[in-house]
Structure to design on (217 residues):
C-alpha cells in the first residue's frame, strides 16, 4: 500500500487494527465510529494522517481505553522499528520492558484509587423513541448489511430501545412469506436490540442501587 510521506504511519496502522478488529467493511466501520466514509477511506489508505478525534472514536468503538492510545502507538512504533532490522532491537526491548512495567504500575494504581474513588454517576436514562423516531432509525438500519446492523445496535445507544425492537420484529413478520431468510435475520436483530436494551437498563438500575446504598460514599 502506498502512503504519503507526511502521513503518520503509526496512527494509520493502529487505526487499521481497530478497523480489522470490528470485522466490518468501510461503510459499517464509518457508521460504528460516526466518521465520514470518505475520511475512513483516506485514513486507512494513507492519504492523510488519522486525526486524534477519529482515532479516539475508533478506540471507543472497539472499547479500547483512550488512556492507552499513547502506549499502543509506542508499541506500533517499536514493531515498525523491529521490521527495519535487528540493529534497532535494543530500543524495542527497552520499550517492551517499560510497557510491561507501566502495565503493572497501572494495575496497582487502579486497585488503590478504585477503593477511594466515588461511584460514577448513573448514565442518563434515554427516553423511549416515538414511533416516528423509531421509523427513522429503522430507515438507517435498513440500508445496511446484517453485520453492519448488529454493530450499530451494539455500539450506538440510540438503536437500543423496545420501540425499535418491536418495529424490527414487525418488519420481519411482514417479510416472512416473500423473503423468509431476511425475516429470520430481522427476527435475530430484534432479539439483539431487545437484549441490548435490557442490559443497558439493568446496568442503570445497578448503578442507581449502588448510589443509594447506605454504605456508599
Amino acid at each position: 500500500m502506498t502512503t504519503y510521506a507526511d502521513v503518520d504511519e503509526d496512527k494509520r496502522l493502529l487505526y487499521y487494527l481497530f478497523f480489522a478488529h470490528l470485522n466490518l467493511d468501510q461503510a459499517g466501520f464509518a457508521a460504528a465510529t460516526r466518521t465520514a466514509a470518505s475520511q475512513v477511506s483516506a485514513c486507512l489508505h494513507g492519504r492523510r494522517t488519522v486525526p486524534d478525534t477519529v482515532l479516539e472514536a475508533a478506540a471507543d468503538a472497539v472499547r479500547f481505553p483512550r488512556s492507552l492510545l499513547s502506549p499502543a502507538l509506542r508499541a506500533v512504533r517499536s514493531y515498525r522499528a523491529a521490521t527495519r532490522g535487528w540493529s534497532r532491537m535494543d530500543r524495542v526491548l527497552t520499550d517492551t520492558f517499560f510497557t510491561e512495567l507501566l502495565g503493572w504500575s497501572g494495575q496497582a494504581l487502579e486497585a488503590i484509587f478504585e477503593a477511594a474513588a466515588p461511584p460514577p454517576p448513573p448514565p442518563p436514562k434515554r427516553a423511549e423513541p416515538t414511533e416516528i423516531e423509531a421509523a427513522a432509525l429503522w430507515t438507517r438500519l435498513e440500508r445496511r448489511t446484517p453485520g453492519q446492523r448488529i454493530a450499530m445496535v451494539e455500539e450506538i445507544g440510540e438503536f437500543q430501545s423496545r420501540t425499535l425492537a418491536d418495529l424490527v420484529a414487525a418488519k420481519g413478520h411482514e417479510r416472512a412469506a416473500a423473503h423468509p431468510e431476511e425475516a429470520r435475520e430481522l427476527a435475530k436483530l430484534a432479539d439483539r436490540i431487545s437484549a441490548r436494551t435490557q442490559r443497558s437498563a439493568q446496568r442503570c438500575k445497578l448503578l442507581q442501587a449502588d448510589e443509594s446504598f447506605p454504605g456508599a460514599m
